[in-house]
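Hello,

Our lab assistant flagged a job as stuck in the queue for most of the afternoon. It eventually completed. Since we weren't sure the result was trustworthy after the delay, we are filing this so someone can double-check. Below is the sequence as submitted and the structure that was eventually returned. Let us know if re-running is recommended.
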Amino acid sequence: GFRLQLGNMKRIAIIEDQIHFQEYARETLSQDKELDLVFFFSAEEFLAYEQNDQFDLIYLDIKLKNMTGLELLRITTDSGKEYKIVILSTLFSDSVIFEALENGAIGYLLKSEVFNLLEITYIFLNGGSVITPTIAFQVQRKFKKNPVLGLEKLTDRERQILDELIKGYTAD
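-- returned structure --
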C-alpha cells in the first residue's frame, strides 16, 4: 500500500458529532503512530481550541449542531490563517459542494465512499487533493450541464478550483 514517510508527527483534527464516525476515524488513522488525532464535537469547540491553526489537516463535517461546517469554513477563510480543511460529509448538493470549495476546502469526501481514510489522509498530507466519485461527477455535470456557460465563463477562482480538483482526483 501507499505509505507516507512523514518523519515527524502530523496533527489532524476531526470535527464530527457522530460517535460512530469518530470511532471509525480513530480506528483507521491511529494505525499510523505519527498521526496525532484531536476530535471535536462542534465547530464552536474547534474555534475555542487555542491552537486550532496548528493542524496539518482538518476533516470537517457539514451537518453539525448549531454552527455548520460551511459557517466554520467561512470563518477560517476570513481569518487569513492557513487551514487545510477537507469536507467529510453525507451532504452532496451542488450548492453545498461549490460553497465549500469556494470557501477554501481542499477536498470533498462523501462518507459512504471513503474506503481508506488513511491512504486519503496521506494524499492530503503530501499536498494532493481528493474528491470522491459522486462529488467528481457532480462537479463535472455542473460544468457540462450548460456548455454555453463553458469554462470561459468561470471566474478565475472557479477555474482554479476545478484545475486543482482535476489534478488531485487523477493523482493516484
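-- support follow-up --
The delay was a queue issue, not a problem with the job. The result is valid. The longest strand covers residues 10-15. DSSP finds seven helices and five strands in the chain.
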